[in-house]
Every structure is written in C-alpha cells, then in structure tokens.
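To illustrate the input format used throughout this study, we show a single complete record. The first block contains the structure-token representation of the backbone; no residue identities are included at this stage. The design step must infer an amino acid for every position from geometry alone.
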C-alpha cells in the first residue's frame, strides 16, 4: 500500500541506502533513499520524471502489517485534520504557508493549491502538512520537466474554485506568487467554515469563471457564510469541537479580515508573500494586533488586554483595592466630621441650657 506525499526539501537528508536492502523502483518512481521507518511502514524519497520532474515521498506498508486495524490506522494519517480543534487547524495552516513560501523562494509557483494537494500526516504523533502535486507549477528560473510545456494564450490552468482572478482571465497577465496567496485564502476560508466562499457547481462553471475574471465574486466573510449555513453550521462547529455561536464569534473580526485580505480580487491588496500570511495568523494566535485591520485605540487596547490578561487582572484588582480604600477612607472622614459637628451642636445646646438655669436661679 502506497501513500503519495510531498518531499520536504528543508528536512535533513538521510544517508543513502544500499541497493541490497531496498528496491530500485516502485511503479513509476525511482527510489533514492529512505526518509524514515516505523513499525507499520517505510517512507522512501523517490523521483518521478514523467509527466513532470518532481520528488515525492512514498510510504510503503511492511509485509504482514496489512491487517484491518493497521490499514485503518495507515489511512487515518490522511484524516488527522478531522479531529483537530479550531485553533489547532490554524496552527497547522501556518507551516502550510511556510511550505508554499519555500517553493516561491525556489522560484516555483504552485498554481493549483487545493485541499487534495495538501496532505496532513502524522510525524512523531504530531500532524504535519505536506504540499504535493506541482504538476502545473510555473518555474521562474529553472526547468521542471525534460519536455517543454507551453500554455496556450487564454487557457486557464488550475482548479476554478481555488483559482485567482488573474489566473482565470484571458488577458495574458503575468501570474506571480500572489496567485498562490489567493488560493491559500480560499483554503483557509474552507478550513474555517467547511465550505467554499463561492461554489462554481452551485452557480454554474461558466458564470463562476465570468464573475471571477470580472472580479465580481463578492464572497461573504467566513462569519457571514457560517451564519448563512443554518443548522449545517452546527455540524461545521461540532467537527471543530465547538458550537456554532462560539465559532461565529471567533471568526468575526480578525479571521474575517485575514481571509478577505488574502482573497482580495486585486492582487496588489493581498498579502505580499505566503510568509506574510503566516505571520498574520501567528499574530492572531498570539492576540497581537493585525496588519490587515485599520488601527484604532480600542482595538489595540482589546488586544493588549487579551495578550496580558493576568497582568491586567492583577492591575485592575490593585486599582479596585486602591479606589475602594479611598472610598472607605473618605466615608470614614465624612462620618468623623459629621460626628464632630453633632457633638459640637450638642455641647452648644448643653451650654445654652446651663446658662438658662444659672440665669433662672440668679
């Protein structure tokens, strides 16, 4: 049993294997070396040369391990996302952005980012995203295949639901790395809400492409999309280990701003790089002010309070104690002054009575 995963070029290279221990080829892939080995299987680094040149990771189950339980566990690696909480999904999306950034730094634009091209596997008990299938990737400074691939003028390459407007239009506009930023925005939208911002199958493919090219998709924000799902929104929230009301409140505001900026119709208004999107998500997770939101004193104060909740509570308690002490001291002073005034009045009354009696006897 083989699982196709993307090779991570940032990982340290294992020692080359000997030909006696492992096969030279598995199907259309030439085995290069062992990336890792566990109780259930072995992960090889392999090279594919047709129809495109790329390196992949092939996970092969060991002989004798093909029991129903093991097969189920093997397949469950690809479903790790289904059991993750809302913030855990965001934590996982950050390294996915960083993987796209790595490709961009190597001069490669993916141009077909979508859920099926982002695998989530487990490594040492932790979920790890892998970007796969650079089949229609655009190289800015290197050759990806032994054959020349020519894209005809006006031919849109990619998956329409995740395609940027400039990738879909027929003007011949040069597509740069920001097309992947748009696709990451759609992926993040779907990750948060469980639905596409705009489904081409619901409105028709031709109508969808026309609206995309004219930059008139006008998708709702993630929080608005969740509100419009009705009872289905409860199922979406449940799969993220929360309820619909809580998820809607978490989406409203910062996450709405992040997603909509990544999906800006005009690429000049999107995040400049995949790293910029990753940093923005990290700011959200750390309760820091976003760059995508207009600055305001109230917003920044709210972020400061959430980020330093313990210190703010302690300072508020100290301030409350100080105010309460001042109030009590003031009240005591007022009572003392009032008592002094009453005593003076009583003394004066007693003096007047005494003077009256003395006068009477005289």
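Output of the design step:
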């Amino acid at each position: 049993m083989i699982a196709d995963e993307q090779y991570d070029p940032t990982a340290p290279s294992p020692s080359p294997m000997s030909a006696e221990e492992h096969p030279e080829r598995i199907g259309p892939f030439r085995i290069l070396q062992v990336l890792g080995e566990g109780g259930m299987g072995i992960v090889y680094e392999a090279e594919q040369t047709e129809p495109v040149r790329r390196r992949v990771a092939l996970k092969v189950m060991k002989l004798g391990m093909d029991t129903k339980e093991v097969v189920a566990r093997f397949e469950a690696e690809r479903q790790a996302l289904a059991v993750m909480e809302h913030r855990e999904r965001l934590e996982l999306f950050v390294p996915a952005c960083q993987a796209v950034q790595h490709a961009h730094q190597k001069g490669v634009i993916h141009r077909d980012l979508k859920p099926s091209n982002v695998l989530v596997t487990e490594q040492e008990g932790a979920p790890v995203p892998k970007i796969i299938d650079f089949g229609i990737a655009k190289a800015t400074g290197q050759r990806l295949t032994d054959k020349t691939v020519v894209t005809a003028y006006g031919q849109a390459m990619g998956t329409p639901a995740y395609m940027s407007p400039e990738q879909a239009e027929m003007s011949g506009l040069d597509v740069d790395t920001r097309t992947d930023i748009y696709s990451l925005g759609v992926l993040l939208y779907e990750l948060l809400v469980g639905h596409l911002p705009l489904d081409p199958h619901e409105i028709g493919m031709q109508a969808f492409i026309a609206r995309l090219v004219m930059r008139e998709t006008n998708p709702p924000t993630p929080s608005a999309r969740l509100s419009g799902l009705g009872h289905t929104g409860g199922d979406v929230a449940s799969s993220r280990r929360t309820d619909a009301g809580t998820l809607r409140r978490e989406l409203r505001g910062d996450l709405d701003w992040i997603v909509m900026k990544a999906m800006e119709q005009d690429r000049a208004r999107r995040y400049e790089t995949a790293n910029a999107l990753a940093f923005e998500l990290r700011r959200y997770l750390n309760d820091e002010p976003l760059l995508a939101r207009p600055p305001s004193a109230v917003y920044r104060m709210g972020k400061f309070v959430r980020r330093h909740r313990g210190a703010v509570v302690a300072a508020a308690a100290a301030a409350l104690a100080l105010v309460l002490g001042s109030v009590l001291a003031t009240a005591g002073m007022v009572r003392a002054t009032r008592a002094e005034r009453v005593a003076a009045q009583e003394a004066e009354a007693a003096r007047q009575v005494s003077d009256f009696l003395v006068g009477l006897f005289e």
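Structural context for interpreting the output: The CA atoms of residues 250 and 267 lie 26 Å apart. The longest strand covers residues 29-37.
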